[in-house]
Amino acid sequence: MLAAAPASSGDARPAVPPQWQAGAAVAGPLDTAALANWWKRFDDPVLDQLIDNALRQSPDIRTALSRIASARASKNIERSGLFPSLNASASGSGSRTEVRATDVTTTTENYGASLDASWEIDLFGKQRLALSAAQADLAQATENLHAAQVSLAAEVATAYVTLRSTEAQLAALETSLSAQAETAQIAQWRQQAGIVSVLDVRQSTSALEQSRASLPSLRQTLSETRNQLATLCGRTPGELDALLAAPRALPAVPASLATGIPAETLRQRPDIRAAERGFEAAVARTKSAKRDRLPSLSLTGSLGVESLKAGDIFSPDRNLARLVGSLSAPIFAAGRIQATIQIKTEAERQALIAYESAVLSALAEVENAQTSVARTAERLDSLSRAAEAASEASTLAAQKYQAGQADLLVALDAQRTSLSLEQQRVAAQAAQLTAHIRLYKSLGGGWSSL
Predict the structure, then answer these.
(1) CA distances from 122 to 77, 86, 128, 287 (A)
(2) Angle CA(301)–CA(302)–CA(303) in degrees, nearest 5?
(3) Pairing verdict, β 296-307 and 318-328
(4) pLDDT digit string (tens) for 310-348?
(5) Could you identify which of 5, 159, 291, 422 might form a hypothetical disulfide with 172, taking C-beta atoms 3.0 to 4.6 angstroms apart as the criterion?
(6) pTM to 2 decimal places
(7) CB-CB contact of 258 with 114 (8 Å)
(8) What HEC string does 164-215 produce?
(9) How many C-beta atoms lie closer than 10 Å to residue 282's C-beta?
């Protein structure tokens, strides 16, 4: 892992820090066993079923599997170049010549069969380098599959959290609408009794309808998120509605996970390993291109028989054998070989830069995810206390308004504040869950060999 850059590349490998700057919540080595199926830590059977369906049926996973099959076939093609090729052929010919002057007709027949072999000997290892590049391509395709599994599991989990948080926000809104409708009814009764003016009725009705206007957007989000989950699972829109119909609470925040050290994460992440395999393939192709400047040796040979009659092909009149060796070396190619080497060298440099970029992005993603986990927990703690206090204040304000001991605006403001803080609390809970998902993804969790 973490192959060194070649001396000729001029590019330095990024330094891997010994520890995470954000600090690990739990000391110890990276828990790779827990990362393999990290979503089970949320203890939600619906989420488990969704991710299982997605990993089996997603178009992205099927495409990655097809690319592995294609890369394996390409490797077999390169491997076949190390061996001789053998072909069989059969031929037959006949002619009839008639000389009118002598009235003589001559008929001849000729039949033959042969085995032809050719072999380009891998004198300087060019073909073996091409095979090494194809093997690295196959390994990269396999790691790309694992990376697709990591991304897909995180995407499904994030969409599921969005679904459940939207349901929770919708439930909070409906509870608030019930309280606001009760306040509006009380204002109407008090206006009919001549205690307050029609202004209280209009203000309470306006507040009620303003809150009710949020219902369509929340319901639209629910529908779109269900469709998103169906698409991620390789299903048509609506096909998962039965599974997702019953509202459920947001999953509980899982216990903290040991994140180990940065080097462990880089070994765990399939996108880093894929970038490394891509660099290895590029290095092999550069070396193979340089072998084009060296001589090549090829052998051709054949064994054959000839007969004047088709029935005598196994008792031939003549046996033929031929063996030819050919050694050739490039003398003048108008710069083609050198240009090809330059192209491969730059492709190698680009692969190394892509590897470095993947390492830097991975390190930043883990640091950001760990910080996000800590900060969202702090925000959720504050909002939970604020939402609880606002709910009590809203209840007290409504009771005092009903008893004529508080102004309507005080009651309406308390209800708005309570609804806003409860929705913020739900959003913060969802953000904390999403932060944990981002952390699991950044640590390379969620992939397994198929």
Answers:
(1) 15, 17, 7, 14
(2) 140
(3) antiparallel
(4) 555 556 666 677 888 888 888 888 889 999 999 999 999
(5) 422
(6) 0.87
(7) no
(8) HHHHHHHHHHHHHHHHHHHHHHHHHHHHHCCCCCHHHHHHHHHHHHHHHCCH
(9) 23
pLDDT number for residue 91: 77
Q: Look-up: residue for tokens 């050694």?
A: 327
In whole angstroms, give the CA distance from residue 213 to residue 426: 19
The string of pLDDT tens digits covering residues 123-160 is 899 999 999 999 999 999 999 999 999 999 999 999 99
In this predicted model, what pLDDT tens digit does every residue of 182-193 receive, in sequence order? 988 988 898 888
Whether residue 289 contacts residue 344, with contact meaning beta carbons closer than 8 Å, is answered with: yes
Give me the half-sphere count of Cα atoms (radius 13 Å) on the Cβ side of residue 392.
5
Place of tokens 């995810």: 369
**3-state DSSP of 352-372:** HHHHHHHHHHHHHHHHHHHHH
Residue type, 72: R
C-alpha 270, offset from chain centre: 10
CA separation for the pair 268, 245 (Å, rounded): 36
CB atoms inside a 10 Å sphere around CB 432: 23
3-state SS, residue 127: helix
Task: Delineate the domains of the chain, giving CATH numbers in brackets.
Answer: 7-82+122-294+335-442 (1.20.1600.10), 85-121+295-328 (2.20.200.10)
Provide the token pair at 410. 């005080």
